[in-house]
Structures are given as structure tokens and as C-alpha cells.
Description:
Helix content is 72%, strand content 0%. It is mainly alpha-helical. Among the domains are: 103-146, no CATH class; 163-191; 195-404, Up-down Bundle (Growth Hormone, Chain: A), CATH 1.20.1250. Helix 13 packs antiparallel against helix 18 (372-395). The longest helix is centred in the middle third of the chain and has 30 residues, at 196-225.
Amino acid sequence: MEATSHRPAWKTLLAFAIIYFVWGSTFLAIRVGVREVPPFLLAAMRFSIAGIVLYGWTLARGERSPSARQWASVSLLAVLIFVGDYGLLFWAEQRVPSGLAAVMLATIPVFMALSEIIFLGTQKLTVRLALALLVGLGGVAVLVSRSLNLGGVRYPWFSSPVLALAGCALVLGGGFVVRQLTTAEPLIPLAILADPTARLAMLAHSFGWGSILALNIFLPMYLQSVLGWSATSSGLSLMILMVTLNASAGLSSQLVGRVKHYKLLPMIFLFVGIGAVLALALSAETMTTVQFEIILFLIGVGFGPTAPLTQVVLQNTVSIHHLGAAIGTMNFVRTLMSTILVAIFGAIVLAAVPIGATGDTLGQRALAGTSVAAFAEVFFAAAITLAIAQLAMILVEEKPLESTMPRGRA
């Protein structure tokens, strides 16, 4: 049987990276843009340009132009999506932070699922789906609780509310593990978790991406509260991190299949990234703009090659019938670890905020009086978590890469 041709892995990884960073960064771009351009005009400019480019691309590829009926259907959808949805998003970001807007849009899958259940009848409400919807809404509620005045109370680590939350987490986590071990069709196939190479690849992937995501969240806070930068300057300064990370990830992904020791280059680069994060922690109090941008450049270049390497290692070790579940598991673990690290780093920062701090904005009230030492501790913690990712990659077995998709293994 001839091997089936497949799209190169680096193209798929690059496509996902563009979705994560380019589309995700548009919320910040909207926040900056509506300060200078009316929101609905800005939205019209953005989506008109995108539509013209896509239409030109389809014509260049030889596709037929839509019929009058298709144009009418598309126009109706455009009004509902780009005016009713994104238009209101642009308008709202005149008044709310881009991060809060992005989190609120995380409820879209919930409403889509409810629409399929209630109106279309294409989905059934099961216990698993109901729990998933509740967890999703609960996560959004936690993230926006301070804006809704549901937070603001400080509890000791061993107080009853904190212990109760920890107990609930342990019960839910234990229930998930028990379910995994006893069900006939587990959410995460046990064969994946039994493979030490897959476990180490997921560990490196989750700790690496969790560290980068946490830095993306806390670096703007550091710049605003410690160095006194504006929100716009703080957000735009991170562009070099996004650009270098994606560029180094895309370039290194093309080299993975062409060298024998494909782990060597990413591990060397990750050492550079860890060193840059340590330099960030050590110079947090005396940081200059040039130093900061150089450090961001080194962090992006340092971590970029690790991102595609972990996915290639996972794809190379699991059987083909577990491939989709393995990638989904890696994404799940990455999201879970990112949430945990952001919560831990946030506790470190907020523990240094004086009670009763005041300010004109939500960010100023949340971070007023935060010491540079708190952010230095966060940066040291990020270096440690990146070092854990580095250790996991060192321990990963460097198996020869298969030229085709792996066949099913016993």
C-alpha cells in the first residue's frame, strides 16, 4: 500500500500559530484603533479590506464569482456578524479593556451550543455537555469577577474559602481521573498517557507555552505599574516577542525533518530564552526600553523552536488512530497549565498590592503600589517553569522521525 501524502507539519503548525497570535492580538489592535477612529468606521475598514483581499484571492485561484442569490445570503450574514457582532465589539472597546472583551467573547461557543440545542435541534443536552458549559461559564465569571465587583476580598491561604476551593478542585480532579480509568471510551486514551515520550512532550509543551502566556499577561502590568508606561506603549512593545517567536518557530519547523539530531537546536535556543527571562528578573528595577526589547527578542527566538518540536515529537510517537486525541490532549494540558501558572503568578503579584489601593482605572486599582520585587519574583518563576520545559525536552527520547504518518501500533 502506498503511503498517503500529507500536508507538511510545519504548515499546519504555522497556521495554528497565526490563529493564536494574529487573531488573538486583534483585540488589542481594536482597543488602540478606536482611540483614533470611530469604532464602526474602523470595523468597516478592517473587514472591507479583508473581504477584498479574500475575493481577489479566490478569483486568482480560478474560482467562479458568487451568484446574486449567494451575494444576498452573504450580505445578510455580513450584517449579522460584522455589524451586530464585531461592530458592537469595536464600540464596546472604547470603554472596556481589550483583555476583558476577549474573555467575554469566550462565551460564544456556549451560545452556539445552546442555539443548536434550543433552536436547531442538532445537538442534545447531555450531562457531559452541561458540565462543560457550566465550567466554561464559570471560568469566564472568575476572570471578569473583579470588573463585576465580585472580588476585592483578600483571604489568608489557609482560610475556609481558600481551603474549600482547593477541596473542590481536588474532588473534581479526582473524579476526572477515576472517570478516565473506568470508562470504556476515556476522553484521553490511556495509551497516550502510558507513552513516556508523549508525556514528556506534553509536559514541555504545556510548561513552555504556559510561561509565555503568563509573560504576555504580566509584562504589560509590569511596564504600566512599575515603569510608568502607557497601556498602548505596553501592549505594542510586546509585538517583537510575537513576531520573533512565530518567525523562529516557522523557520525551525522546516529544519526538524532535515537534521538527525533535531532536538539540539531548539534546546540551545531555549537555554537562551531562559537566560533572557533571568536577565529580565535581575534587571527589573533598572530596565531601559532598549534592554527590554532586546530581552523580548531573545525570549521569542529562544522559545520559538521548542513550540513545533514538541508537537512533532508527539506526532512521531503516537499511533495514527490516537493522533487526533493526542493533539487534543496536548492542547488541553497546555490550556490547563497556562491557567494554573497565570493564577500562581497573579497571586504573587496581587499579594504585594496594598489593601484599599485606589486609582482611576481598573488596572490602576488592581496594581497600585505593586513593588518591582513582586514582578521580579514572577519573572524568576517563569524562568523556572521554562527550565522545567527544557528538562522535559532533554529527557525526551530522540526517535528517528517517520517520513509518513505513523502506523497503528499494538
